[in-house]
Design goal:
Largest sheet of chain A: 2 strands, antiparallel
Distance between the termini of chain A: 36 Å
Structural class of chain A: mainly alpha
CATH topology of the largest domain in chain B: MetI-like fold
Subcellular location (chain A): Cell membrane
Radius of gyration of chain B: 24 Å
Number of domains of chain B: 2
Number of strands of chain B: 0
Strand content of chain A: under 5%
Number of domains of chain A: 1
Helix content of chain A: over 70%
Radius of gyration of chain A: 24 Å
Largest sheet of chain B: none
Strand content of chain B: under 5%
Number of helices of chain A: 14
Helix content of chain B: over 70%
Family (chain A): Belongs to the binding-protein-dependent transport system permease family.
CATH superfamily of chain A: MetI-like
Organism (chain A): Paenibacillus helianthi
Largest interface: A-B, 97 and 96 residues
Oligomer: heterodimer
Strand order of the largest sheet of chain A: 1-2
Shape of chain A: globular
CATH class of the largest domain in chain B: Mainly Alpha
Structural class of chain B: mainly alpha
CATH superfamily of the largest domain in chain B: MetI-like
Order of helices and strands of chain B: HHHHHHHHHHHHHHH
Membrane topology (chain A): Multi-pass membrane protein
Shape of chain B: globular
Number of strands of chain A: 2
Keywords (chain A): Cell membrane, Membrane, Transmembrane, Transmembrane helix, Transport
CATH architecture of chain A: Orthogonal Bundle
CATH topology of chain A: MetI-like fold
Chain lengths: 293, 281
C-alpha cells in the first residue's frame, strides 16, 4: 500500500504541471513586482537599480494620495452598503415569512453573474446627464436634483462605487444566507424560549456566531474596494482629471500608458501592503477565537 | 385604524416592501437593458424610456450580430472560457489528488504554496505578467489569456478538490490496490467519479470567472480579432449616440450565457461562488 501511494512517477505526473504553471505565472510575477519596484525600468531594457526612489517619488506624488483616498472611499462605500443590505435581506429570507423567496433570491443574485462591462455600460446610461434614467426618474418624481453624476470630481467616485456595490451585493447576500443557515436551529430556539425578540436574537446570538462569515465578507469587500480598477477604467477613465484614480489605476497608467514600469510596480507593491494590512486588521478585530458548534 | 396597523404588522408590510423594492432595484437595470435592446433611439430617449417597447425591433439583434464584431467576440469568449475550464480542472484535480491522497514528503508545503495564490490579487502582478506573456511570445494569441487564466484558477480550484479528496475513506484505495489496479486506474475509475459533484460546481465557477474576466484581458489583449466579449463591448462606448438599440442587443447577447446558466443551476452557482468562504475563512 505504501508503495502504491508513494509512486514517485505518479506523484511527479500529477503535481508538476500545476506547480510549474503556478510558479511561472503567479509566484514568480509577485516576486518580480517587488524586485522591479526598485528599478527605473521601461519594460524593455534591463533597467537601472535605484533603491527606493520610486517609493520616494510615489510619496511626493499628489495622485498617489488621491488614489489612496479613493481606494478607502470605494472600500468603505461598498463594504457598508453590501454587507449592510445583504445582512438585512439574508436575515429576512432565512426567517421564512416573506412570500416568493425563490424569486427574491434570484433577483438579488443576478447582477453578480453579469459581465462588469455590461454593468458599467448600463450604469453609464443610467447616470448620463442628458438622457440618463436617473435624472428622468427625478424629473418624474418632481425633485430638482438632476446633474451629470460622473463629471463632477466630488460625486464621481461615489457614483462609481455604488455601481460596484449594486453589482456584488448579491454575492454577500448568498454568503451571509449560507452563514445563517449554518447556525444550528436550537440556538435561536433557546433565545426564543428565553423571551428574546427576533432582533435581539439576531444581534446577540446569530451575528456573533457568524463571525467567520462576516470576516470573509469584510476581507472580500475591503480588498476588492482597494483593488478597484475595472469600474474606473470603463466608466470614468480615472477622470474627471485624476479624481477617480485608485492604486491599481495608477499602476496601469504608469506602466501601460506612460511606460514607467518600475514606478507602476512600486504602486502595485504599495497595494499589496495595503491589502495585507487591511486583512490583518480585520482578522484582529473580528473573531479572536474560532467558534465551533 | 388600529385594525389596519395590526394588519400591517402581521403581514410585515414594511419588511416585505423593502425586500421587493430592493429586488426591483436589483433586476430593473437588466430588464431595462432587454427593453431598450428592442427599441429605436427615439423610443429610448424620448417617447418611452422606462417601459415595455411599443414595437419589438428584433432587427437590433441582427444588426448587432452582423454590423459589429459580436460573433467574433462571442466565439473568442467561448474558446477562452472553454480552454480555461478544461485546463484548470485537469491540472488542479491531478494536483489536489496527489496533495490529498498520495504520500510524499513535501505535500504539505506544496499544498500551502498553491494556497498562497488565493491571496494574490491579479492587479498586483499585472506588470510582470504582461512582460512574461510578451517574452513567451504569447502576446496576441489565445494563449495570452488562457495560460494566465488557468494559472489563476489553480489555487482556488485545487483547494476545493483537496477538501473533497480528503473526505474519501482510505479503504477505497486499499481495495483497489489489492485488486491490482494501478494508481492511474484508481484515479480515473474510482476517485474521479466520487468527486463528480465538486467537478460540476467548479466547472461553473471557472466558466463564469473566465467569461466575465476583464482586468487581465484589457491589458493582455489589444488585437481586435482576439477580444473577448467584456473587451469587445467597450467598443460601443465611442458610438453611444448612433445606435443604442444594437448596443443593448449586443449586451444582452453577451449576458445570455451566464444568466442562462444561473437560471438553470441557481443553487450550484451560488454554491460555487460561495464555497470559497468556507475555505478562505
Amino acid at each position: 500500500m505504501k508503495k502504491f501511494l508513494g509512486n514517485k512517477t505518479a506523484i511527479a505526473i500529477f503535481t508538476l504541471p500545476a506547480l510549474l504553471l503556478y510558479t511561472i505565472m503567479v509566484f514568480y510575477p509577485i516576486m518580480q513586482t517587488f524586485f522591479r519596484s526598485l528599478y527605473e525600468w521601461d519594460g524593455l531594457t534591463a533597467g537601472t537599480f535605484i533603491w527606493f526612489d520610486n517609493y520616494k517619488n510615489l510619496f511626493d506624488d499628489s495622485v498617489f494620495y488621491t488614489s489612496l483616498y479613493n481606494g478607502l472611499i470605494f472600500a468603505a462605500i461598498i463594504t457598508v452598503t453590501q454587507i449592510g443590505i445583504a445582512s438585512i435581506l439574508a436575515f429576512v429570507i432565512a426567517d421564512g415569512v416573506v412570500k416568493g423567496r425563490r424569486l427574491l433570491r434570484i433577483s438579488y443574485f443576478i447582477p453578480v453573474v453579469l459581465s462588469i462591462t455590461v454593468v458599467c455600460q448600463l450604469w453609464l446610461s443610467i447616470y448620463n446627464g442628458q438622457y440618463g434614467l436617473m435624472n428622468k426618474l427625478f424629473e418624474i418624481l418632481g425633485i430638482h436634483y438632476q446633474q451629470d453624476w460622473l463629471s463632477s470630481s466630488k460625486s464621481a467616485i461615489i457614483a462609481v462605487a455604488f455601481v460596484n456595490a449594486w453589482q456584488y451585493m448579491g454575492y454577500h447576500f448568498a454568503l451571509i444566507l449560507a452563514g445563517v443557515r449554518s447556525v444550528p436551529e436550537q440556538y435561536m430556539e433557546a433565545a426564543r424560549i428565553d423571551g428574546a425578540t427576533k432582533l435581539q436574537a439576531i444581534r446577540k446570538i446569530m451575528i456573533p456566531m457568524m463571525a467567520e462569515t462576516y470576516k470573509f465578507c469584510l476581507v472580500f469587500a475591503v480588498t476588492g474596494g482597494l483593488n478597484a480598477f475595472a469600474n474606473m477604467y470603463i466608466m470614468t477613465g480615472g477622470g474627471p482629471g485624476t479624481s477617480t484614480y485608485t492604486l491599481t489605476y495608477l499602476m496601469y497608467r504608469s506602466a501601460f500608458r506612460v511606460g514607467e514600469f518600475g514606478y507602476g510596480s512600486a504602486a502595485a507593491a504599495m497595494l499589496v501592503i495595503e491589502c495585507l494590512l487591511a486583512t490583518l486588521i480585520i482578522n484582529r478585530l473580528v473573531a479572536r477565537e474560532r467558534i465551533t458548534y | 385604524m388600529a385594525w389596519l396597523i395590526k394588519k400591517v404588522r402581521q403581514n410585515n408590510l414594511p419588511v416585505t416592501g423593502f425586500m421587493w423594492l430592493y429586488a426591483i432595484l436589483s433586476v430593473y437595470p437588466l430588464i431595462w437593458m432587454i427593453f431598450y435592446s428592442l427599441k429605436n433611439n427615439d423610443e429610448i430617449f424620448v417617447t418611452n424610456p422606462f417601459g415595455f417597447p411599443t414595437h419589438l425591433r428584433f432587427e437590433n439583434y441582427s444588426n448587432a450580430w452582423s454590423k459589429y464584431n459580436v460573433p467574433v467576440y462571442f466565439m473568442n469568449s467561448v474558446i477562452v472560457a472553454g480552454a480555461t475550464v478544461i485546463g484548470a480542472i485537469v491540472l488542479s484535480v491531478m494536483f489536489s489528488y496527489a496533495a490529498a491522497r498520495l504520500q510524499w514528503r513535501l505535500r504539505g508545503i506544496a499544498h500551502t504554496y498553491i494556497m498562497i495564490g488565493m491571496f494574490i490579487p491579479i492587479q498586483v502582478i499585472m506588470i510582470p505578467l504582461a512582460i512574461l506573456v510578451r517574452d513567451f511570445h504569447l502576446a496576441n494569441t489565445y494563449g495570452a489569456l488562457i495560460v494566465p487564466y488557468i494559472a489563476f484558477n489553480l489555487s482556488f480550484t485545487s483547494i476545493v478538490f483537496y477538501g473533497f479528496f480528503r473526505s474519501i475513506p482510505n479503504e477505497l484505495e486499499e481495495s483497489a490496490c489489492i485488486d491490482g489496479a494501478s494508481i492511474y486506474r484508481t484515479f480515473f475509475s474510482i476517485m474521479l467519479p466520487i468527486i463528480k459533484p465538486a467537478l460540476a460546481t467548479m466547472v461553473i465557477f471557472i466558466f463564469l470567472n473566465s467569461w466575465n474576466e476583464f482586468t487581465m484581458a484589457v491589458i493582455l489583449i489589444t488585437k481586435e480579432s482576439l477580444k473577448t466579449l467584456p473587451l469587445g463591448l467597450l467598443f460601443f462606448q465611442g458610438q453611444f449616440t448612433t445606435d443604442w438599440g444594437a448596443m443593448g442587443a449586443a449586451m444582452t447577447i453577451a449576458s445570455l450565457p451566464t444568466v442562462l446558466i444561473y437560471m438553470l443551476f441557481s443553487e450550484q452557482v451560488e454554491n460555487a461562488l460561495t464555497v470559497g468562504s468556507a475555505v478562505k475563512g
